[in-house]
Write a structure and sequence with these properties.
There is one protein chain. By secondary structure, this protein is mainly β. It folds into two domains: about 15-105, no CATH class; about 110-174, no CATH class. It is built from three helices and eleven strands; from the N terminus they run ααβββββαββββββ. The strands form two sheets. It has a six-stranded antiparallel sheet with strand order 8-11-6-7-9-10, with no helix packed on it. A hairpin with a 4-residue loop joins strand 1 (about 50-55) and strand 2 (about 60-65). The longest helix is centred in the N-terminal third of the chain and has 7 residues, at about 25-30. The termini are far apart.
Length: about 170
Amino acid sequence: KSTCWGPIPSTFAIPLTKLIPYVEHYEIKNWLKLWGKDVNSLIGCYRPLGSEIIFDDYAIQYLGGFLLSTNGDDSFGIEQYLSSNKRFLMLFTGKHLIRDVLEIDKKELENRILTEYCITKNGLETEIIALVNPTETEFHTKIIKAWRANRDTGKFEKVNKRKIKKCINHSYGL
C-alpha cells in the first residue's frame, strides 16, 4: 500500500534547482550527484552517513574510522574512504564537520600500510598518521611518509619522517 506525501514541488511551479540547497539525505544527494565535483567539496560540510558518496566523475566507499583521543578529548577523528585509484582520509570534528581531506594515491599504498599512533622524541602522538613498510615486529620503523592531523588548524600537515622513531603495529601478535 502506498502513501501519498502530498503534492509534488512542480505542482507549485517550484523548480528542482531551487530545492537542491535543502536536500540533506545522502541517498538523494548521491542520486542527484549533489556532493560536488570531488572529495574536496566536502570540506566544511557535515560528514555524510552513507557507505558510498558519488561525485561528478567518481565515487568513494567508506572503509572505517577512528578517534584521535588525547587526554580524554575525543573531539577529532579520521574516516577513511577509497576510490578506484586513491585512499582519502577525512579529518572531522566531534560535531562531524569535515575540516580537511588527505589524498593518497593507490600506487603509494602498494605493499605498504597506513598506521596511526606514532612515537617521536615527545612520546606517543595520536595525531600522526604514517605510511609504512609492514613488518612482523611490535613497531613499524620503516616510515615512508607521515602527516599530522593538527587539531588547532584543522588541517593535515606533512611531518618529516626522520622525526618519527616508530609507529605501533596494530596487527602484531594476531
